[in-house]
Amino acid sequence: MPTPIPASEHRARILAALRPLPSQGVPLRDARGRVTAVDHHACVAVPSFDNSAVDGYAVRAADLIGASAVCPVILPVSSAIGAGQAAEAVEPGHAAKIMTGAPMPEGADAVVPYEATDRGSDKVSLNLSPQRGANVRCVGEDVTGGALVVAAGTRLTPRHLGALAATGHGTVDAHREPKVAAMSTGAELVQPGQPLAPAAIYDSNSFIIASAAEELGARTRCVGGVPDEPSRLRDALEEQLDWADVIVTTGGVSAGDYDVVKALLSSHGVWFGPVALQPGKPQGFGLVGRRRVPLFALPGNPVSAFVSFELFVRPALRLLQGLKPDGRPARHASLARALTSPAGREQYLRGTLTDGVVTPLGGPDSHLVASLAQANCLLRVPAMTTTLGAGAKVDVLLLEDAR
Ligand SMILES: Nc1nc2c(c(=O)[nH]1)N[C@H]1C(S)=C(S)[C@@H](COP(=O)(O)OP(=O)(O)OC[C@H]3O[C@@H](n4cnc5c(N)ncnc54)[C@H](O)[C@@H]3O)O[C@H]1N2
Ligand code: MOO
């Protein structure tokens, strides 16, 4: 039996084998969730022209010195400018009606809001004395032309899309979305919704893996319940190898007589071995086929598959998209009750974290899938720790922050 390698070493080997996917031009409307491959700079300044911040009258501040409610200044109104309209120049001693967002006319240097006027059409009574620049939004005040708007390696959210649109980007240069095939193996698997035969169980892994990959921005295919026969597995893999950027199998990697994933893929350059991890001890990883597609062979127990995804597949999918290959955000917490852990295996328990206190959920066993639904964190026990008392400080990984 080979010596288990630390989980951190397995992750480092995986990440060392991967490179970000190539980038492509993506129409802005399709770009939410994509990751920028390059810095994006402003194509235009924002605002790109001086304009009014209010509905009111564009004036020369010098014409209104001393104006007040008791001593208003009356000026002839020479024009009216709406948003999107070209502005005529305003002569000294004149005012122009102006709407919010309309370009400032030449000659004017301030805007008096309607509320400080009588809203006159031919002439207007203005009852305040504005500073030069009052209520004027200046060119480049938000961003100058050519300035950085969104840095490379940013996952695009509505906030970023707004800034990119405003600065003139119709498309963005973004990494391709990883295409992930989630393939569960095992003769016992039945798809949920179907009747269960004796000794059969419902396939939960392909749902865990595909949806977790989607949360990370992947496009996915679910291949549920591939039987434990080498030829069927080979066919199923070949079908996905031309399409997928990543294949994640579950099941068939331990020591059983029907563990065909390990048997078939060992001869195709996939490394299999124990990792000092619970759940998630038996693992496989390699680059498969002509396109050298990264293949993760995860253990079949659903909690093992989930934890393995979190520790190994998550950072890999991030790296492929040009993001830092981080795991879930970690926090320190106090343990609600004492626990024991096996020596020599880093352990991850499901837990609930409330106000800095973490309560382990269910037991450590990796078939206890229902407790995953209650968990909001994974509680990490280091490999060399075998007992922890109530109140001990532990690390937890937060599960609710999706990306
Ligand atoms: N003699 C040994 N037996 C086992 C060892 C070992 O070292 N020596 N390791 C154990 C550990 S740890 C794990 S984890 C499992 C991993 O097993 P496999 O990856 O080979 O997976 P299977 O045998 O196919 O299945 C294990 C278990 O999980 C259920 N399963 C599988 N796929 C799904 C699915 N898609 N949805 C729901 N449940 C699934 C399956 O029915 C089994 O109960 O091996 C231990 N054994
Ligand atoms: O590694 Mo298994 O995942 O301990 O149950």
From TrEMBL:
Assigned keywords, A-Z:
Magnesium, Metal-binding, Molybdenum, Molybdenum cofactor biosynthesis, Transferase
From the UniProt record, which GO molecular function terms apply? metal ion binding; molybdopterin molybdotransferase activity
- Residues forming the MoaB/Mog domain are 181-319
**GO BP terms, alphabetized:** Mo-molybdopterin cofactor biosynthetic process
Q: According to its UniProt record, in which pathway does this protein act?
A: Cofactor biosynthesis; molybdopterin biosynthesis
| Catalysed reaction equations from the record | adenylyl-molybdopterin + molybdate = Mo-molybdopterin + AMP + H(+)
Annotated GO CC locations = cytosol
Q: Which InterPro entries match?
A: MoaB/Mog-like_dom_sf, MoaB/Mog_dom, MoeA-like, MoeA_C_domain_IV, MoeA_C_domain_IV_sf, MoeA_linker/N, MoeA_linker/N_sf
* Necessary cofactors: Mg(2+)
Q: What is its EC number?
A: 2.10.1.1
Keyword Transferase, does the record have it? yes
Per the entry, what this protein does is: Catalyzes the insertion of molybdate into adenylated molybdopterin with the concomitant release of AMP.
Q: Give the family, as the similarity comment puts it.
A: Belongs to the MoeA family.
Q: What is this protein called?
A: Molybdopterin molybdenumtransferase
Q: Which organism is it from?
A: Nocardioides bruguierae
